[in-house]
Each structure stands twice: as structure tokens, then as C-alpha cells.
Amino acid sequence: MLIGDVARRSGVSARMLRHYDALGLVRPTGRTRAGYREYSGEDIRRIFHIESLRSLGLSLREIGRALDDRDFTPSELVDDLIRQTQERIAAETELLTRLRRIGAAEPAGWEDVLQIVALLRDLGATSAGRRQRAALSSAGEVPVPVEALVEAALSEADPNVAGALRWALAQSGDDALAPLAQGLGSPAAEVRVRAVRSIAEIPDGGATTLLRDALASPDVVVRRYAALALGTRGVADAVPTLVDMVVEGVNDVDAADTLSALASRPASAEEIAARLVGRLALGTVEASARLRVTQALAEIPGITASRALADLSQDEDRAVALTAAYILRIRDAR
């Protein structure tokens, strides 16, 4: 079969067939009397084999080795191709994400594009200082897309940079909530914590709804951050978790302060005091926990708190008893 017929049947151009011949990949079995290349059936099968391997991303050199080396095993080469393809997909995905973020910022001109690109690059810099400056600059005239800020906030380990990123997200308001909500469901504990802390700094609105949902999280650390944030917003649902924090000695000072703020209404004060007293009634609370509860009751007004302090002034632990008695004297003097 002549080269023109082979090209039509195989879909491989005559020029490429000549290139294969020059490389020694497919040498026509014969020649006509006029000197034209003449391909046999075996030659054509080899052409189809070459095209199949090219579709996998193999170079012509690798294809020649695969077809001619009898000791060649494909597994190593296929593994290498998988790795190269994964790297290429990751790079293309990163580029696509960057382009979408630039588009979302709606740049007015190339200067805006260049500024956004610089900020995105600095958000991923190895220098914590550069990342922090980028975060603080993100709410400027040409803002960084909120998705980029969320991604940076959920991966940031440096406390100063993390604080700057949470501030930047707070300026974005509810626009940041959807991607942060995904962070709450992350399998990584540190990402969940960063997400709830970022949500806690976003002003009231949709953030409060997300924080209420976070109170039911299986992650106790997420629940605690959500409770502290909700308590400062006056949400009574946070009380049980805050009481647990006081008893367990986890951020107990902040939890007690938040309970005190929630106790500004008489009905709330009685509920909070009852919950604190209820934990004491379990009979298994250690002296250190009883002392923390005593200190928390100091700022809770009402009869229930006063009665509990009177009982605690008779506690077997001297520190608890003295603290309760001191608090009672101050309350009586008011």
C-alpha cells in the first residue's frame, strides 16, 4: 500500500509517516519500481500501535523503546505518565482558579489585573510578613477575591497573619460565609477551627446562623469557639457549652465573662445559675472545678446564685469556701 493510501486509511499524514520513517519507527517493508514507499499489513498495524501509544502521552522515543525492546515493561512508564498527568492537571487547575479569581474581582484594566496577581502571589508567599501585608491590603481599591482570602485563612498557621486574614474576611461580610461553611466540614481539625474563628469575627447576620449550626459540631473545639462568639451576641443557646467550659477549665475565664454578659436579664441569670449549680449537684466535681464555678457565680445576679454561694461558703475545700464567703460579702455590700 502506497503512502497516500496509508495516510487516508490511518488518519496519519504523509508528512508524519515520512517522519516516522526518518526516525526508524516505521520503515516501509518495500519500494515500488518507481521508488515509492510501499507499506505491508504489518507496517500498518505498527502505525496504529504508535498512534495508540501517542494518545497516552508517550514521546516518539518512548514509543520506539516500547515497541522494539522485548524486555521493556510498561508499568514503570505508565506510573511515570500518571505522575506527569497529575502534575499537569494540578498546575492547570491552579491556573484556572487564579483566572476565575481575577475575573471575580472585575478588574477595570491591566493595572488592576497586575495588582490582583501580586496580592494573590503574596498571599501564598513563604514570608509571613508578605502574607500579612497582602491580607491587610486585600480590602483596598482593588480587593482580593473572597475565595482566595478564605483559602489563605483556612491554611494559615502564623497567628499574626491569621488575625489579619480574619479581619479581611470580616470586611467581606456575608460573601465569605459560604466558603467558610465548607471549612467547618473539613476532615482536618485545624481547618475547622480556623473556619469557626473566622466566622466568629464576621458581623451579625448569616454568621450567627452558621455559629448556631457549629454548636452541634462533633468537634468540641469548634463548639467552644462557636459558644463564645454566640454568647457575645446574646444567644442563650451557647449557655450549656459555656458552663461546660467553666467546669472543665477550658477558656474558663472567657466563658465566665460571656456568661456574665448573658446574665444581664433576670430570667437568663436564673437559668445560667441553675445550670452551674446543677453541675455541682452531680457530686463528682473536683475542688478546682468547684472554685471555677464559684468564681463564675460571682458575676451572676439573682437568688439562685446567692443560695449556691452560701452553700459553697461551707465547702470542704478551704479555697472554695473562702472565695464563696468573700463574694457573698461583696454582694451583700452592694
UniProtKB/TrEMBL annotation:
Domain of life: Bacteria
UniProt entry keywords in alphabetical sequence: DNA-binding
Domain HTH merR-type: 1-69
Keyword Nucleotide-binding: no
InterPro entries: ARM-like, ARM-type_fold, DNA-bd_dom_put_sf, MerR-type_HTH_dom, MerR_fam, PBS_lyase_HEAT
Pfam family, one: HEAT_2
Name of the protein in its database record: MerR family transcriptional regulator
Organism: Sphaerisporangium rhizosphaerae
